[in-house]
Structures are given as C-alpha cells and as structure tokens.
Amino acid sequence: MSSIKENLEHINEKIRVAAEKSGRKREDVLLLAVSKTVDVPRIKEAVELGLVDLGENKPQEINWKYYEIENVRWHQIGHLQTNKVKYIIDKVCLIHSVDSMKLAEEINKRAAAKGIIMDVLVEINIAGEEAKHGVPLNEAEALAVEISSLENVRVKGLMTVAPFVEDPEENRKYFRQMKNLFVDIDKKSYNNIDMKYLSMGMTNDYEVAVEEGANIVRIGTGLFGARDYSK
Ligand SMILES: *Cc1c(COP(=O)(O)O)cnc(C)c1O
Predict the structure, then answer these.
(1) Helices 40-48 and 59-68 sit at what angle, rounded to 10 degrees?
(2) Are 134 and 160 within 8 A, CB to CB?
(3) What is the pLDDT of residues 16-29, one digit of tens each?
(4) pTM score of the predicted model
C-alpha cells in the first residue's frame, strides 16, 4: 500500500495538470482531505503533510475528532439533519450540504445563538439520482436566493456529488452544468451571495472536475486508501 505522502504527491500533480488545462494553478484548487472513518494518527500524518482542510460526512465524527486534532479546518460535507446542526455549528468552517430552506433556517438560528456567520454551499443533485441528496439544478438558484435573506448564513457557492461511474468522462457534462450555473449566479451579484467555491470531484473523478472548474475537490480514498467500515 502506498503512503499518504506518496498519494498526496500523486494527487497534487494531477490537480496541477488539470488546473493548468483550465487556465489556473495548483494553488487555485483546495484539496479537502476526506477523513471519514480514518483514525486520528493517520489524519495527523496528513495534517503534518500540510493538509489543514478536513471533510467529514457525519456530525458525530466531527464532534469528537475536533478535540483530538488541532490547527485544522473542519468541513461538513455529508447530509446534515436539522437536529444535528447544534453539534457542529461552532466546529466547522463550511457546510457543503445545504439542500433545504428548513436546514438553512436551523443553521441560521444556531449560528445567531453563537454570534457567528456560517458559510454554506448549496448542494445540487446533478444527475437527479434517487439515493442522493441535493436540490435539482434548476432549483438551486432560487434556494440560494432564499437563503441569502438569512442574517447568519452566507451562501459561498455550490457543491455536488456526481454519479459513481467507471469512466469519469461520463461526469464531465455534469461538472460543466455546475460551472455554468456557478458563473450565472455570480454574474447576478445577489446581496449576501458570494460565489467563491465550487465543490465537486472525488477520488474517482476529481481531474475532470478540476478541468471543468472545480476549486474544491473532496478526496478520501485516493489519499488514505480504501475505507474500513468494520471498525
Ligand atoms: C466520502 C465522500 C467523499 C470522498 O470520497 P472518495 O471517493 O473516498 O474520495 C467526497 N464527498 C463526500 C460528500 C463524501 O461523502
């Protein structure tokens, strides 16, 4: 098995090449290390290699890892139930998975109580898959605008989990649709909407995502190896 260091070097190089294809540089793309199910020593190894943005899909996991690992930024990337918002509201820097006004309102309420403004992304179910969370592409702008009325929440961009496919080229059209909407919303300069992050691309398809304009990629397996859910 290759080491986290080797994996990281490989990924950095792939991101660099893909970023250059879209007229950007390696440093224009944030590599978010997805540390779900990964134990603390291995996460610390990644942090020592310079990875300070960590993504988790379960609030419960952020809730304890937060106290074990210092000087990092946690991102909530998985589906978030409204009753779990309170556990992470003061622990994360960005919630990638907002797909309803109800959830945004709960985040707003909890953020207000802490005196903070929480940055969020609107999650889009780009291929309309039944098992996936997120709003349809054609409803995302309306949701972003609705959320922008909340005082303690700030829309910072869009996120998607593309279909799991053999050939990542199959997802190129979806990444392109995401980018087009990202640009469209940005052009309209809505108050309280700052189209800064386009979070898309995972181990299987991040190169295509970056070529199409992603500026956050969320990578777990490619960095830490296959996840062990038995522990
Ligand atoms: C697990 C997960 C990832 C990372 O997936 P890999 O294929 O292991 O890179 C990215 N985004 C979300 C929302 C996830 O839940």
Answers:
(1) 70
(2) yes
(3) 999 999 999 999 99
(4) 0.97
